[in-house]
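User: Quick sanity check before I run a bigger batch. Here is a single chain. Can you write out its predicted 3D structure?
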Amino acid sequence: MSHSKQIICDLAAYSAINCSAYLMVTSMNNIHVRFQRNPPMGIQERLDRWREDYTLNHKKQKWITVIEMASGFVVFILSDGRHSHRLWLAGALSCTAGLLWTELSMRPDSHQLMANDVLTDRGEDWVKERLDKWYIHDIVKITTSCLAFNFMLAALWKFKPSSNDGFSFFALWDRTIRCFEAIAPYLTALKAMVL
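Assistant: Done. Predicted structure follows.
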């Protein structure tokens, strides 16, 4: 692989991993926050909380997903077999599935629920039903985010550098993992002494 392709591949890999980690962590945080809150008393309060959550998180996640998806495809196209490019493809496809799921099944309900007069136009039962459906669909989207992160992390984990890699993200990752593997027995022994 040429030096310029290696730089592009490294930047795309770094971007894909960071975007997928961000999406996975924010998705898990959304679930955690949902369960930590006191259950809302009325449908208006529940709708207000959904709108706040949607405004703060879900609007920007679309663009982060697009960056992750594009970066994953770039790494798949530019990398050779040493970079576990099938795992990069699986991560990018998981991301694509999550984006399509969001746009096709969640976006129409989101636009209707964001309307100011949705409670008077559609009624409380319809709003409650749509919110419940939306949260179930969100779990599917969260699952695709977690899959994308795990596929991309597995691709980095399986990477085998060659002797002529020079400095690259993949080589740096390999050196970091080898350092952790080297000190793991000492950390285990230290933990046993402390406990």
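The mean pLDDT is 80.

User: Great, the batch can go ahead then.
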